[in-house]
């Protein structure tokens, strides 16, 4: 038996630039998310304002992502993601000068939420283009026999950013303030652009020649007719749409657990810690064996952990519950990511990635809006209890509709 090289993917220079850029971008975006959400809640004291942030990002992203996938399959992906990352830098600059007290552009506190909403909207536009072009780049960075190794390393760098970003953002907000935190975010974004620029241009074989609408229908149709791909995306979307609690964490940190911005950073990082530990375990016990059973059990576990978080008034128990939401969610992420990497042909990866991105954004950003609206109508804690219960209902329903998928075996990468 030949010995497996655990660092195989990292021996490709383009892949090293990719995961490094991904790390700094994840750090920057999650730091910015923490400081913006806490600052906004301090301004408004209204959970619905946090939901509006999700809506402001979701509307442009969902509107543009399928078109962005078409563009990624037709034009130079490197130019697309570099220009998109540059726009994200401009968004942070707008936030700095729009919210700084000493800036010529600064507004009074009554109008500052609109600066945040407009900035997040522009970020959603940029994301509609960088997400499919960046995500569909991964299979071109390493040889096919190293796909599994590259997926593992990419996930680990991403999860490191998901852990460190919120914690760093919370501590920076608490100790150096809102605007200084955004300057650190901007520095990380510039590093992202510099690293991403080092990745060599990738030629795409069999680029799509179809017109826009036919091309988009082809991408959606490919996803729709692959049952395990379709059901995995739909299950993830509805479970996170109702069961996600991330948008409401500033409310829990400030008004329920009374732990401030530092505590918010730890709460936001807890799911990522759980995800990292499970990701390490999946290297030895891959969930792609009996994939559909594992995904249904994981989403059910996500719902139960959400219910525990909803009723907790203890900071440590809340972190523990969030830890398990991330642990269970990462299992479904591994299964879905494996499906998305194995099934699409190269010339359709951008569009398939865009279709997946639309559903992910629907669950995350529209889920944030749903959380804010439900919290305003029902109260914060009852709304999270409702979300956890709905997740369990959704798992039960999809189980009854997808029993034939229990026999599906995913092809192992690198086999």
Question: Describe it for me?
Answer:
The protein has 415 residues and is mainly alpha-helical. It has one domain (9-198, 212-407): Up-down Bundle (Growth Hormone, Chain: A), CATH 1.20.1250.20. It has 14 helices and no strands. The chain has helices spanning 13-44, 47-74, 77-99, 112-135, 147-175, 178-196, 212-225, 227-243, 249-256, 260-282, 291-311, 315-342, 349-378, 380-401. The radius of gyration is 21 Å and the shape is globular. It starts with 12 loop residues before the first helix and ends in a 14-residue tail after the last helix. The model has no long low-confidence stretch (mean pLDDT 84).
CATH topology: Growth Hormone, Chain: A
**In the residues, how many domains can be counted?**
1
Largest sheet, if any?
none
Radius of gyration: 21 Å
Write the layout of secondary structure elements.
Elements: H1 13-44, H2 47-74, H3 77-99, H4 112-135, H5 147-175, H6 178-196, H7 212-225, H8 227-243, H9 249-256, H10 260-282, H11 291-311, H12 315-342, H13 349-378, H14 380-401
Helix pairs in contact: 1-2, 1-5, 1-6, 2-4, 2-13, 3-4, 3-6, 4-13, 5-6, 5-10, 8-11, 8-12, 8-13, 8-14, 9-10, 10-12, 11-12, 11-14, 13-14
What key attributes describe this structure?
mainly alpha; Growth Hormone, Chain: A
Write a concise synopsis of the structure shown.
By secondary structure, the protein is mostly helical. It contains 14 helices and no strands. It is globular, with a radius of gyration of 21 Å.
